[in-house]
């Protein structure tokens, strides 16, 4: 949850920084173009700073998308899906690595005996938040049993 909030804050700050910077740069460029003495080096400098502001804005939007992409699926499943309670029965290393570290999954067995696997996440996060025997929640789509999400870090 803390990582999500930090991404959200970073995304909002970078996007606002980029948009405000672009607006100020456009105002300055219009001021230079309207003035009788046009100075080309200053105009080029302002155009370069607009490009930098566009990069900030793009990075901010990427952060915001990464935060809200997962939330959309969760909200859909919360509205139309079935919430099942279960216990963590295993913590498994996957064959995938990120920065030479293995991703890990938790395996949840619900009260009705079905087994669900979470999406891969970093070993440190999984080990910090979950131990075998902890309670966990699984959101299962009412239309398709194979469409589910194990709720992590709640």
Task: Provide an overview of this structure.
By secondary structure, the protein is of the alpha+beta class. The protein has 2 domains: 2-74; 81-151, OB fold (Dihydrolipoamide Acetyltransferase, E2P) (Beta Barrel). 53% of the residues lie in helices and 27% in strands. It is built from 3 helices and 6 strands, in the order H-H-E-E-E-E-H-E-E. Strands 1, 2, 3, 4, 5 and 6 form a 6-stranded antiparallel sheet that branches. Strand 2 (101-110) and strand 3 (115-117) form a beta hairpin. Helix 1 packs antiparallel against helix 2 (40-80). The longest helix is centred in the middle third of the chain and has 41 residues, at 40-80. Keywords: Membrane, Transmembrane, Transmembrane helix.
Secondary structure class reads: alpha+beta
Question: Radius of gyration from the CA trace?
Answer: 23 Å
The H-and-E topology, N to C, reads as HHEEEEHEE
Strand content: 25-35%
Query: What oligomeric assembly is this protein in?
Result: single chain
Number of spatially distinct domains? 2
Beta strands, count: 6
Q: What average pLDDT do the residues reach?
A: 76
Beginning-to-end CA distance, first to last residue: 8 Å
Helix proportion range: 40-55%
What does the main sheet amount to? 6 strands, antiparallel
Silhouette: elongated
Q: Please report the number of helical segments.
A: 3
Low-confidence stretches: none
């Amino acid at each position: 949850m803390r990582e999500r909030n930090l991404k959200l804050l970073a995304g909002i700050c970078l996007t606002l920084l980029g948009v405000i910077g672009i607006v100020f740069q456009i105002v300055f460029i219009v001021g230079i173009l309207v003035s009788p003495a046009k100075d080309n080096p200053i105009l080029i400098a302002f155009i370069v700073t607009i490009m930098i502001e566009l990069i900030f804005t793009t990075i901010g939007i990427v952060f915001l998308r990464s935060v809200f992409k997962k939330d959309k699926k969760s909200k859909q499943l919360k509205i139309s899906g079935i919430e099942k309670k279960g216990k963590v029965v295993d913590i498994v290393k996957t064959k995938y690595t990120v920065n030479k570290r293995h991703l890990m999954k938790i395996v949840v067995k619900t009260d009705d005996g079905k087994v669900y696997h979470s999406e891969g996440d970093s070993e440190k996060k999984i080990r910090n938040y979950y131990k075998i025997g902890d309670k966990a929640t699984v959101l299962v789509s009412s239309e398709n049993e194979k469409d589910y999400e194990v709720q992590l870090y709640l």
